[in-house]
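Backbones bend. We report:
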Amino acid sequence: MTVQMIRLSSLRLGRSLTRRWLILFGCALLISAATPDDRRIITGQMQELSDAIATGDVAVWDKYLDPSVIYAEEDDTFKGKAAALKEIAPLPNGLSGTIKIALLSYHEEEDVAIALFRQKETEHYFGQTIYANYLTNTTWKKHADGWKLLAAQVLAEKTDPPSVTLTNNRLSEYAGTYTLLKSSATYTLAVSNGMLIATRNGRTPTVWNAEACDVFFVKGEPRIRNIFQRDRAGQVNGFVERREMWDIVWVKKP
């Protein structure tokens, strides 16, 4: 092979590689251009599903649920498509509301997309208005007739309850040192500037807010309540740290 032939062969190879790179780059551009549109479509379908809850429009849910969907709800239940469709019904008289969604995170891989939404619910309950937020993680699969919801998990976002103001005399009933059963751990409670301050084993002090008499919470920890216990004479003799349904017992030192 002559030097000229080698040069021609290299030139052809270079052109072939260039064409391949251009094709791959063009495909990448097409994929990346499709993603925002898919994101918009899925977000729109999620809003349609949310709107259909109040109106009881089962046709919308039938349209967008994949036949193999697994739907986990905030009440600890999960169901397939047939069971989910049975629950879609108009709200009874006296109840109405809206759910507005916001897309928080999105990832798409070929024909599968994962979308995390926040659903902000406003409910009108017999003349009173209440609010709730939900984090809903969804998985979508693309079929010939569009994106279908393949899986969803709904989590109710817990919030702190409103607090009440107790007198210093009432707060002073809780002051003292408490010990954890079968442990060296201690809680020291003191009253300062009208607040109940709790310090555990020298850690950073926290404010215990009263939800009601003998019931306290810490802001940012909505799953926990500190509930004081009293003896037959009405004197505080300890508290339970209630983590949802589970109680951790603390005993007040004499």
Summary: The domain at 30-156 is CATH 3.10.450.50 (Nuclear Transport Factor 2; Chain: A,). Helices lie at 3-55, 58-64, 81-86, 168-172. Residues 116 and 137 are 4 Å apart (CA to CA). The longest helix spans residues 3-55.
